[in-house]
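[RESIDUES AND BACKBONE]
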Amino acid sequence: MKIPHVIAACSFAMAVSSTVSAWAMDQSPDAPADSTAAGAPSSQGHTALPSGMAAGTSVNHDTVKQNTTTFIVQAAQDNAAELAAAQYAIAKSNSPDIKQFANHVIENRSHVTNELRDLAAKLGISMPTYPTSDQLRSLNTLHSESGTAFDAAYAKFMANTHTTAVARFKHAAQSNTLDPGVRQFAQNSLPSMEDTLQQANRLVASHGGRTRTG
């Protein structure tokens, strides 16, 4: 079951991502709100084979299509979770460094979401706009915190969630079984993502809590 405050945060964050970049051209309706639904390529979508793969090899093409879809769906869900958490931080935290970081996350992840949406549209992939069920549960727990406990929980949530996201993008950046444009997008996104992870880890050190290391 989707939690109302999570839905509100995700909806607001996705609205921000739709307007934060003037070049964002995709104005299609939101993807289905099922937080666990994986996007699926449409009958009109086309996923290019990576360089070095022979055209006409249907197994390879299917692998590329499936891996590309999985990456876009999971990256979109990670973004939705981080954007929702950042909205909580802006509303609930009294710490300037937490609020500053949350604003950075909204700006950065909104740009990434716009790029993902553009790639998904070109490839005919339905992109989710809500986090996964596990992420929703974590967001619900985060929302229940307040004061310094919220700051510590938010820093930990972001460090852990972004550790997973960075690992996902690193794998995509080196993958030979992804659409070439998506692989290039992952490569281009990594520097800013790694910077965000460093910031999140510094917040953990400042506000308490332990993070996953891998």
Notes: The two ends are 29 Å apart (CA to CA). Confidence is low (pLDDT under 50) at residues 12-49, 51-59. DSSP finds six helices and no strands in the chain. Helices lie at 4-19, 58-92, 96-123, 133-144, 147-174, 180-207.
